[in-house]
Amino acid sequence: MRVFRDEPLLEIITYLQRGLAGGAPIDLAVLDPDRGRTCHAGELVDGHVHRPFRVWVDLAERLGLRLQTPRPGPPPLIELRFEPLARAPAPRDASTEKYGAASPFARIDKREDPGFVLDLADALDRVALGPAPRILDLGVNTGDELALVLALAPRDAAEIVGIDHSASAIAVARERFAGRVQLIEADLNGLAGVTLGRFDLVISIGTLQSPGIDDRALLRRVVQDHLTPDGAVILGVPNCRYVDGEVEYGARMKNFRQPELGLVIKDVAFYRKYLQQHHRQVYVTGKNYLLITGVAREA
Q1: Residue of 169, 164, 162, 144 whose CA lies nearest to 199
Q2: Which of 77, 198, 245, 253 sits a CA distance of 20 to 30 A from 1?
Q3: 129: pLDDT confidence band, cut at 50, 70 and 90?
């Protein structure tokens, strides 16, 4: 058990990085963050450097580690255990069931991400849906995000349509919503062949960046063919990945140890500019999922 008192954070990072090579859990004893309430990170408390608990959570995430629940140590210390995450190869599945009900992606529930829930609530407040809106969910999958939308902005008179290319996911959603939502099994690249009409809100979370989807063409079709004059969009761009049950912030590229956000920024910039050109006020919010919310400008 290595005890850290007044050493800089860089020394702790180096210690953890070296310990990663062995693949075994790494134990530290550090100042109990509660001892330094109201202090800034780096200030001394009882001869120890104070670091808020958030520092240890962020450090674990950036180094690809799981931080276990802290244990009491000899006062004024607590004991922290970090363990490497198991990194399984990404599944290679080009079928429509890559994101199906039995896929690894089906285990992810963004309703349990505090940031996503709070950011989506803010986005829906900006949209300000009427009492009987038409809502379209592109990439509805099993309906987790749509269920959250309906919980955050309940509208009994809403007409809701969800589209996805996964037969198994659509089957789960049909059972879940029991006729409340019209669910269509279709490829989003073939949206022109689906009779939909126009909507007051089009939402798509984590779908536009899916392999095989032309996100720019899809956005153009949505705005030009499927939005009412005062209609709004909420687009969710993934800015994270899921490893061994944990979420890691930031888009990743092969051979990059830390997040590389170039492609995310490029996509967000395009969506923002395009929506502004079509008379929408645009807000970009979020962390693990960036939400691009476009609402009609006031006359």
Answers
A1: 162
A2: 245
A3: very high
CATH of 104-296, one of 3.20.20.30, 3.90.1150.10, 2.60.40.10, 3.40.50.150: 3.40.50.150
Residue with tokens 């180094």: 63
Summarize pLDDT for 143-182 with one digit per residue, the tens: 999 999 999 999 999 999 999 999 999 999 999 999 899 9
Which residue carries 């990743």 as its tokens? 252
Kindly report the CATH number that applies to the domain delimited by 2-84.
3.30.110
Asked if the domains at 2-84 and 104-296 fall in one CATH topology, the answer is no
- H or E element that contains 289: strand 289-296
Task: Give 118-134 as a 3 state SS string.
Answer: HHHHHHHHHHCCCCCCE
- pLDDT tens string 274-298: 999 999 999 999 999 999 999 998 7
| Tally: H helices and E strands in the chain | 7, 16
